[in-house]
């Protein structure tokens, strides 16, 4: 009892984590994310490994003939680019994981007497909700960490290109942002489920939001982007100078503002922009130092973290009406 009184947030979080470990729901869904991420990764890794082997064979042949390596250009390999498919899986399935985890965490306190019993103890409402939030954060971030670690290991073993400390730090940064991204959907669904009269409606609204911000808005933005109509970009393929690009874009500035606004309304697009830049998936950032990228992408970073933090505060700060929640 003393431990419960002195550390209510930790105790409630520990109980939720223990419950999640027993029912293995988050473990199962995380397994699906890992499978999807690794499936999208392996194909590209095998292709990269073939390129590396081809280069090494050519180099060995030249050396055996006593020739200089100056006659063969040393290619630059960027294994982190292969994480593109994995990031896209995180965007979609990771958000679903956050929704389902948030729904389960909230609905478990409805329609039963456990919440009313807890609220009779020396526990404040915000402490109870903070414990639920901490449990969700620990469970989801740990699951994502395992997936990112598996992806890094798969790259190391199958791509033929070793990952350096800089590569691992980039993956770690993206993992932190991915955790905040998933917690946005966790917090949103938890709030809706705990305070709407019918939990099923909360789940439907959460998935409607997921559909709009994860699938619809990013797709609209990509489809309406004139430069995306050709692989690699129209301007790049036609080798249009930067000054000419700016002049052409000025002709449809209003259209571009609307299109970009639709993309900017999607937290998924912010996560994609940040991740693609940090990992060097987008050609513009390939081989670029991490520091300038983080400075340039701080807007996307702040958008994700402030949204996650705002929902966390909203989730924890609102008082609980235990009688209402137990009358189901």
From TrEMBL:
Molecular-function annotations in GO: ABC-type transporter activity
Keywords: Membrane, Transmembrane, Transmembrane helix
Keyword Membrane applies: yes
Transmembrane annotation, as ranges: 25-48, 89-107, 128-153, 173-195, 202-220, 301-320
One annotated Gene Ontology cellular component of this protein: plasma membrane
Protein name as it appears in the record: ABC transporter permease
Species of the source: Thioclava pacifica DSM 10166
